[in-house]
Design a protein that fits this description.
mainly alpha
């Protein structure tokens, strides 16, 4: 049954319609009910593939990385400039740890969010058709 579901997804990715795929499943010896279940499972998996592909193509993950690394560089750069004396503070220098910690937490949040999304991706409606 898994091969049939994979076949449905492959054919759908090629641009074929479910009305064209269904007779082929019936010709393979599946009953009407089994063909319906296979097409439903294939549709769920097909939509999951489309959604995951769209998320990978979006620049959403870069937003977190750029802002996280940017804040770290900003904090370390300002601290270094005051320590070296390019920004004159007299006998004092400023350690700008706030942006560094926020940048690190932004990167960690993105990593934790990505792990949560991967863990939740295994709980799709497609699982009920796996055997």
């Amino acid at each position: 049954m898994q091969e049939a579901i994979d076949y449905v997804v492959e054919e759908k990715l090629k641009g074929r319609e479910y009305d064209e795929i269904r007779p082929e499943l019936l010709a393979e010896g599946f009953s009407e009910k089994e063909a319906d279940l296979i097409i439903k499972a294939g549709d769920d998996l097909f939509l999951t593939v489309l959604i995951e592909g769209r998320q990978e193509k979006s620049g959403f993950s870069w937003d977190y990385r750029i802002s996280g690394y940017g804040l770290i560089i900003l904090g370390l750069g300002f601290s270094l400039l005051t320590y070296v004396g390019i920004i004159d503070m007299g006998d004092y220098y400023v350690i700008w740890y706030g942006p560094v910690l926020i940048g690190i937490s932004t990167l960690l949040y993105k990593g934790k969010r990505k792990l949560r999304e991967q863990r939740n991706s295994f709980n799709t409606p497609y699982n009920k058709w796996r055997q």
